[in-house]
């Protein structure tokens, strides 16, 4: 899951609370952090503090999971991708969000906080649109900081109404989206139903798979429908990072999108055109027999220097339809936010899987309806904000990109 929302919505506290209570971190570490937090007078930040400490340790290079922390629910092991809130984090968010099965949108219910997040330039809107556009089709909305509204039912209903309208515009079906009132700090409706919100009758989620009901955020997370993982397709593993680890060597890290990866396989990295043998595969510091779609893995490769491969390269099985670079490709483009018009010749940086590369709009082939995909006009002269089109793009540097039908 990816956790999204405005910068002060309480993402870190809520995420920290889940990881804290449901087992991502061992008790010893927690006790150490609690003691430090208390000494620094940061008691009220207990859960967020746990996350910040983990981040600091990660930045010092102690752990190599991409802000990936785990917690257990009755049904699933959940991996959290922490998507940062500030504007300049959009790039990281794109890389993180494109790996998520479900987005949890945290909204602060406090006076004016909700309005700030959802205003025209608030990040709530942008994050939701990004998540939907990147193919994250399941959404949970946690209305946080209910304690600051005196647990007000009216405030919760007001926010739900507004959020329903707005996620519908983005493309989500409100009936399939769970909205749950919580306090990430006090823990209300996180793991157990809250006694402070007796008025809350719980949530209902309706999808093709059926109807589910519940009261808490953890139940909402358990109601996520597991995506179909294409493990029988050829391997595709976009690299998120490449580490050099003393005594081990070069360790690329990323999420298996299709196929499987295991020790002994000979993989090719595109577009770098480097081929090598996989020595071992691990996840969360444990050796894996094989990495399957959805697994965030690190794997050790023979005789490849950190300089040869990089984030944005794609690993595939050299003997089974290996990934190749594309000289050009046709893309469906949705213009979410852009001043003025876009016409042939425009060359923005494109984020594709984990690569960030400038690509030129060689020609605009057709303008289409954003929701239905139906053609509206052939060879338009230009497109603008809110339009959608099919364009021929030419990457400025070698880039691995493949059709969504074959490799979603």
Automatic annotation (TrEMBL):
Main subcellular location? cytoplasm
Report which superkingdom the organism of origin falls in: Eukaryota
- PROSITE patterns listed in its UniProt record: G_TR_1, G_TR_2
GO cellular component, alphabetical, reads: cytoplasm
An example molecular function term from Gene Ontology annotations: GTP binding
Q: Which UniProt keywords apply?
A: Cytoplasm, Elongation factor, GTP-binding, Methylation, Nucleotide-binding, Protein biosynthesis
| General function of this protein | This protein promotes the GTP-dependent binding of aminoacyl-tRNA to the A-site of ribosomes during protein biosynthesis.
How is this protein named in the record? Elongation factor 1-alpha
| Source organism of the structure | Cerioporus squamosus
Q: Lineage of this protein's species?
A: Eukaryota, Fungi, Dikarya, Basidiomycota, Agaricomycotina
Which gene name does the record give? tef1
């Amino acid at each position: 899951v990816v956790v999204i929302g405005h910068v002060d919505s309480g993402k870190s506290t809520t995420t920290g609370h889940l990881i804290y209570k449901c087992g991502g971190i061992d008790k010893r570490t927690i006790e150490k952090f609690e003691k430090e937090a208390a000494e620094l007078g940061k008691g009220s930040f207990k859960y967020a503090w746990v996350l910040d400490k983990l981040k600091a340790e990660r930045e010092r290079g102690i752990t190599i999971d991409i802000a990936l922390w785990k917690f257990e629910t009755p049904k699933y092991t959940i991996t959290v991708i922490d998507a940062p809130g500030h504007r300049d984090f959009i790039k990281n968010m794109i890389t993180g969000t494109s790996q998520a099965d479900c987005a949890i949108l945290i909204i602060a219910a406090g006076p004016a906080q909700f309005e700030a997040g959802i205003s025209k330039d608030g990040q709530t809107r942008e994050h939701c649109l990004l998540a939907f556009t990147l193919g994250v089709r399941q959404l949970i909305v946690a209305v946080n900081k209910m304690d600051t509204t005196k647990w007000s039912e009216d405030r919760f209903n007001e926010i739900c109404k507004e959020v329903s309208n707005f996620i519908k515009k983005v493309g989500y079906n409100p009936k399939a989206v769970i909205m749950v009132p919580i306090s990430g700090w006090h823990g209300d409706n996180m793991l157990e139903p809250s006694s402070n919100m007796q008025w809350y009758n719980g949530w209902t989620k309706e999808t093709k798979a059926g109807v589910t009901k519940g009261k808490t955020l953890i139940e909402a997370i358990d109601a996520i429908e597991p995506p179909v993982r294409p493990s029988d397709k050829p391997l595709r593993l976009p690299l998120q990072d490449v580490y050099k680890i003393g005594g081990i060597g070069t360790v690329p890290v990323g999420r298996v999108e299709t196929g499987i990866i295991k020790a002994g396989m000979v993989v090719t990295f595109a577009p770098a055109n480097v081929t090598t043998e996989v020595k071992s595969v691990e996840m969360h510091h444990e050796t894996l027999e094989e990495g399957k779609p959805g697994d965030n893995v690190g794997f050790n490769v023979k005789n490849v220097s950190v300089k040869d491969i990089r984030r944005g390269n794609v690993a595939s099985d050299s003997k089974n339809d290996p990934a190749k670079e594309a000289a050009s490709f046709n893309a469906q483009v949705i213009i979410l936010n852009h001043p003025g018009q876009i016409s042939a010749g425009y060359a923005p940086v494109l984020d594709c899987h984990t690569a960030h590369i400038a690509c030129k709009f060689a020609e605009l082939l057709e303008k289409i309806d954003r929701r239905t995909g139906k053609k509206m006009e052939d060879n338009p002269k230009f497109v603008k904000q809110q339009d959608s089109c099919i364009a021929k793009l030419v990457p400025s540097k070698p880039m691995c990109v493949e059709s969504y039908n074959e490799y979603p």
